[in-house]
Amino acid sequence: MKLDTMPPLDGLVYRLVVAVDVEGYSKLDALDQFLVQSRLGEVLDLAAQDAGLDRSHWYRQVRGDGELAVLPADADTAWVIAHFTERLAAHLADLRRAGTPMRMRVAMHCGTLTAGRFGLVGDAPIVTCRLLDAKVARKELATTGSDLVLVVSQRLFDDVVRTRFHDLDPSRFRATRFRAKGVSYAGYLCPGPPRRG
Q1: Nearest 5°: CA angle at 10, between 8 and 16?
Q2: Reduced to 3 states, what is the DSSP secondary structure of residue 110?
Q3: Which Gene3D superfamilies is this protein grouped with (predicted)?
Q4: Which position has the higher pLDDT, 62 or 88?
Q5: pLDDT (tens digit per residue) in 45-67
Q6: Distance CA 124, CA 121 (A)
Q7: How many other β-carbons are positioned within 10 Å of the β-carbon of residue 103?
Q8: How far apart, in whole angstroms, are the C-alpha atoms of residue 124 and residue 77?
Q9: Closest by CA position to 110, among listed 146, 46, 153
Q10: Domains of the chain: residue spans and CATH
């Protein structure tokens, strides 16, 4: 979806932001990058559809090997963390079984943002991208047996994951702290689906 066809963001809003990034993308040749982008789009669409989410209502910025998305104001944050992530993990497992594995980091945060001339601006997209790009998240994905690592902000963990709505399991998350560009960030890492069982 092109930026100019996305749902508008009017003024400063408080929303859930979701970012995804594929592991090892820059090491691939152009054809494999093309194929990974196609598979990534399919996986995101299928996971959202399976979770009852309509990605046509998401404000999305494509990032080559990933995406930064702002969900609608009425999105159930606990549902997205629980079910969208679970369905992503399931579709990544399907790709592995089909012989075309793809591994990814997923980051989520709620906060303020608006649309600027060159993309999203505000606290929420910055924090989400810092969580996504953190060395601890990259290391977790590199060392875990899961094809997906979820990292959420401390605020999202405290406000949503701890509620255990939709069978979210706080014990699956591990606290982490890191610094990026002179700023300290706190988050929680979860290898694989964040739901109980």
Answers
A1: 75
A2: strand
A3: Nucleotide cyclase
A4: 88
A5: 999 999 999 999 999 998 778 99
A6: 8
A7: 18
A8: 14
A9: 153
A10: 12-191 (3.30.70.1230)
